[in-house]
Please model this.
Amino acid sequence: MNQKNSLGLNNCFLDLDDPIQLFKIWMEEAKKSEPNDPNAVALATSNKKNYPSVRMVLLKDFNKNGFVFYTNLNSQKGNDLKSNPKVAMCFHWKSLLRQIRISGTVTLVSDEVADEYFNSRGYESRIGAWASKQSEKLSRRYELINSIEEYKKKYNDKNNVPRPNHWSGWNLFPSSIEFWLDGESRIHERLKYTKDNNGNWTKSLLSP
Model:
């Protein structure tokens, strides 16, 4: 029989008041069990007309201040985020039969933070950030390939590729974080943390 925490949930939920601590523990477990990209997360946005859109992105950092990912600011998601900063994330780790859902508001990271991460990327990825007009239509694939080659000529020093002004990171400052564990007969276990007006987290059990 599985051990239970004080709330009657599987012990993997632990008894923590800070959801960021629990997220860190679950993420470390996912890194050991997921075959590819344990930091892959579905990001949901909506545009000015309130049409929703969802896609996978890679989480690159997290701490008590939020969850950080990077993108072309002129892409569809970038334009969505500029017009409506309220977003949601969902991690799904099939190997662990777990999910984490996060809702909140995004703000741009500082130029210093964006520069540091951009410079840690591989040369080809940095060139790609310049060459790709993300989400815009291509008439032929070779247009992108030609653009890549042109920027390789322009920035041929692999140690000195500046970050484009249109490329940066977003920080999702969470207002709620829900942890989900698969249960037998679809009687799942759900624990939701919600931030109150004073910035404190409160815990609630949710019915499956």
Observations:
- The mean pLDDT is 95.
- The first helix runs from residue 19 to 33.
